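Bench notes, afternoon.
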Amino acid sequence: MNNVVGKKKSSQWLYSLFNPFHLNTIQTPRTIPTEYSMKDMSSTGNTNTTETGQNENSLTSLDLESSISSSSSSSPLRSSKRSSPNPEPSFQKRTKLVNSKFDEVSILHEPLFDKSLPKNFNILDINKIEYAIKNLQKSINTIIEITPDIIEFKKLNESNDINNGRKLQITNNELISLSSRLKTLYKLKKIPIFDNIINSNIELNEEDIENLEKISNLNDSIIVKLPKNETISNINIKGIKNNLPELPKINDNKLFERVFTHKSFVNNKNYLNNSELLKLHNERLEFLGDSILNNLVTLIIFKEFNNCNEGELSKIRASLICNKTLLKFAYEYGFDTRLKSFINKEAIKSGDQKIYADVFEAYIGALGIERGNDLKEVQDWLIKLFEPLIFELKKDLNKEPLDNNAKSELYSLIGRTDMHPQYKVIEEGDGVEKKFIVSCMMNGEEIGKGVEKSIKDAGIRAAMEALKNKEMLGKYFLERQKIEKPVKQERMKRELMKKEARLKEMEQERINEKSNLPSTPPSPIRTDMFPIKVDLQAPIDSDSKGELYGLIGRKIGDKPEYINCTDSEGNFITELRIRGILICTTTDRSKKKSMARAASTLLNNKPALEQICKDFRTKDKAM
C-alpha cells in the first residue's frame, strides 16, 4: 500500500513539475489601489475594483500585464517571475486604465491595412537566418547532451547533495522543465527532427510543396532588397575571346561557389568555428590545385621535351605554372569578375594580383575533388591550354644562344661618332605570351630584328641578326672607312709629332743627367766588411724593406735581392744581396719579419751602407 501511495505521489510530482501550465499558475490575486482606481475609472462609478470583484467589464492589473506581455517583448511586466509575488503597478500603467473595454487601452492600438504588407528580404535577413540556424543546431545539441530527462530530473530533486534553494530554483524554472521534456521525447524517439536539424538533413518532397501551396496566401508578396554587385558575373568557359579550350565543369554548385570565395568574404562569420570556415573559402582548394597542376604539367612536359635534362625540365615547368601565366588564364576565363571578396579591387590591381592566380589553382583543386583519381579530362584540358606556350618554348630551345657581346661587336664594325646602330621597339610585349620586337637601325635603315620576352634580349637578338647581314655590314663598313681615313691619317700625323717631341725631351733629360753624375769614388767597395753582423735584439722596422729599396735605387740604380729558404724546424732564412755581395743573413718564424730584419740591419750600419752605395757612374764614362 505504501508503495502504491509512493508511486502516486511520484507521478503527481512529475505531473506538477512538467505540466507546462504549472509554473504560470498565479495563486494570489493582485488589486488596484483605491486612490488610482477611483481616478482612472471615475466613468464607471466604481470606487475600488479588484480582480475578484463582481464587475466583469473592469480591466484588472493582471489582465493588463498579460495583455502587454503577449503584445510587447519590451514591456517591464514580461518577466513577472523575476519580480516580487505581488508587484504594485506603476503610476504610468495605472493612469492608462480607462474603462472595461480592452480596445481602448492606448498602448495596444494597432494600425489597420486593407491588405497584407509585402515581406522584405535583405542581406541582413540572410545573415540573421544563418546565425539563427547555427545557434539552433548548437542549442539542440546542448539539450541532447547535457539536459536530464524527467526520470533523471526526479533523482536530482530527491538527491541530498543539492540544497533546497537550488532544488526550488530548478523546479520552478520553466525553461529547464521544457528542456527536460524535450530530452524525454527525444529519447523516446518522438522528435527525430532534432537529428535532422543537427545534421542539416531536412528534406522536402513534392507532396510537401503541394501542401504548402495550398495553405500559402498566393496574394502575399516579398520584396527582395539584396545589394547588386555588378562585378560578379559568370565565367567564360571558352575564354573572353572564345579562343581557349572549354573549362571542365564543376558539377557541385557548393564546390563551385567555394572556388570563387576568398577568405576575406567569410571572415566576419564569427559564429562559425575554424573547421566550418575552412569549408567556405578556397584556400584548401588552392593548396590541392597547386599540387595537381604541378604533377599534371610535369607529366605533359616530360613527354613533350624528350631531349631536356631534369634542370631544363624544371625551368620549363616553372615558366608554365608561374603566377604570371596562371593570372593570364584567370583573366581570360573571367575568374577575376566572379571572385567574391572584401578586398578593394583597386588594391588588388595595384599589387601582384596573385589572388586571381590562386583562384585558377582552386578551380583545378575542385576538379580534383570531383574527379578523384580519374584526371584524364583535366589533363587533356591542360594539354590544350598550354599548347601555345609549349610551342614557343620548343622554338626557344632551338634558338641560337644569346651573345651578350653582339651589340659591342656590331658597333666596333660599323659604328662611329656621328652614326652608330640604334635599337627601336617596334612592338611591346607582356613578358608572358606576347614578346617584344626590337629593330636594329643604322641611318634610318633596318639591318636586323629581334624577338624575345624582354626588351634587352630582343635588342641582343637584333644585333646578332645584323652581324649576319653581310651586305649591310659591308656597306656601312666602307662608309666608315671613307669618312675615317682622312681623320685617321691626321690623327696618326699628330701622334707622330707628339712622339718626336717626346724623344727630344728624353734626349735632353739624358744629357742633363750625365752632367749631374758624381766623380769617380776615391776607393773601391771594401768587401771585407761583409757580411755584417745581425743584432737579434734590435727592433724590427716594418717599413725598412721599402726604405732600403728606394735608397739603393736612387744611389746606384740597383735594387736589393732577398733569397729565402727554410730550415728543418720551419724557420725562414733570408740572405740579403746587393751588387752580388752577401750583406747579411737573418732567421725568423715569419718570412716577412726575416726580410725586414735584414733590411734594418743594413740601414742601421752606416759604414756598410756607405760602402755598398758607392756610385761608379762617372761623367767621363757616361759621356
